[in-house]
Amino acid sequence: MNDLARFPLEGGGSVVVEIDPVPGTSRVSRRDDLVEDVKGSFEAALANVKDAAAAALDTFRSMARGPDEVELKFGVKLTAQAGAVIAKTGLEGNFEVKLKWVRDPETPNVA
Fold first, then answer.
1. Where is the Trypsin-co-occurring domain (predicted)?
2. 107 domain residue, yes or no
3. How far apart are CA 32 and CA 73, in angstroms?
4. Is residue 34 part of a domain?
């Protein structure tokens, strides 16, 4: 069974997310203790993932002939201990990058 964690929002209120239980532990709780309150805010939890996305975007935009479009796609997993992390699929990290160049109509087609 998955656990629930409550992340406070910086603007007030909170968001409750389903998280995987920590391996090797089991929670015995009262009815009113079903949701774990997380110390950091939801926005703070996402800050590391936001920084990773910004760094990846900067890297692709700084290419000699940078793409016209950059699409970054990744799964985010929330944990009570680490906040937000980039989720994995199988044994690999989950980070998909799509770069798109649009041919300039004034540039001749060079093969």
1. 7-102
2. no
3. 37
4. yes
Q: What tokens appear for 13 in the block? A: 């209120």
**Which letter does DSSP use for residue 55 in this model?**
H
- 110 within domain boundaries: no
Half-sphere exposure of 68 (CA within 13 A, CB side): 5
User: What pLDDT digit, counting tens, does each position of 58-94 carry?
Assistant: 998 898 888 898 888 888 888 878 787 777 765 555 6
Exposure on the CB side of residue 11, measured as CA atoms within 13 A? 2
Which residues constitute the domain of residue 48? 3-100
CB 37 within 8 A of CB 64: no
Question: Is residue 94 situated within a structural domain?
Answer: yes
Threshold 0.85, pTM exceeds: no
Q: Name residue 60's amino acid.
A: F
